[in-house]
Amino acid sequence: MRTFSQSFIVNSPLERVWHFYTDVSHLETITPKEIELKIISTTNQNIVQGQEIWVSGKIFEKIRRRMKWHSKITFLKAHEYIDEMLSGPFKKWRHLHRFHSIDGKQTEVIDEVDFELPYGILGKLFEGYAYKQLKNTFEYRKIATVKALE
Question: How many domains in the chain?
Fold first, then answer.
């Protein structure tokens, strides 16, 4: 299992950032356009415990075919939630989203992703590639979040 983490500051109050990130449509706003993310279905528009979301997109840069992804919110409390992939391109995917207020005017956005690729040893050979793709995607998410909320 490999871990990717990132944090950044957005000049927006915690409740505004939380509201943005807990509306499922934020995924289309903060995902790089070349991924062509589409929300297929969701059991709720706003994040709730047990919610399931189905999306599709061109997840990996070199693999330009559309892949489906089914995830579930497995943990939720104020300003923190976890989504876990039930089916999709990863063998395992667990994404912790955490938000902290800084002086009431700024918010720290923290992402921690634990992931594992399928195909055993062959998948391990491509973890570096997947990590780089995550780094690029999350850099875009940071820029898009700042643009949407500042």
Answer: 1
Helices 127-149 and 14-21 meet at what angle, rounded to 10?
120
The pTM score is 0.94
- Residue 90's CATH number: 3.30.530.20
Q: Which residues contact 10 (CB under 8 A, 6 or more apart)?
A: 17, 106, 107, 109, 145, 146, 149, 150
CA distance linking residue 54 with residue 52, whole number of Å: 7
| Residues whose CB falls within 8 Å of the CB of residue 63, separated by 6 or more in sequence, listed in order | none
In tens, the pLDDT along 45-66 reads 999 999 999 999 998 766 668 8
Closest CA to 149 of 7, 14, 5: 14
For 31, other C-beta atoms within 10 Å of its C-beta total 19
Res. 35: pLDDT tops 80: yes
Rounded-to-integer distance, Cα 20 and Cα 39, Å: 16
Burial 67-97 (b: 16+ CB within 10 A, else e): eebebebeebeebebbbebeebbbeebbbbb
Cα 132 from Cα 142, distance rounded (Å) = 15
Tell me which residue range forms the domain holding 76: 2-149
